[in-house]
Amino acid sequence: METILKCSNLSKNFGNITALNNLDLDIPRGKIIGLLGPNASGKSTFLKICNELLTPTSGDIFISGYHPGIETKKIVSYLPERTYLNDWMKVSDIVDFFNDFYSNFNKEKAYDMLLKLKINPSDRLKTLSKGTKEKVQLILVMSRDAELYLLDEPIGGVDPAARDYILDTILSNYNENATIIISTHLISDIEKILDYIVFIKDGSVVFTKSVDEIREEHGKSVDSLFREVFKC
Amino acid sequence: MSWKLQSDRPIYSQLMELIELKICSGFYPPGSKIPSVRELAQEASVNPNTMQRALSTLESDGLLISNRTSGRFVTNDESEILKLKKKLAEKNVAEFLQMMSKLGFTKDEIQNAISKSYIWEDNNGNNT
Question: Which ipTM was obtained for this model?
Answer without folding.
Answer: 0.79
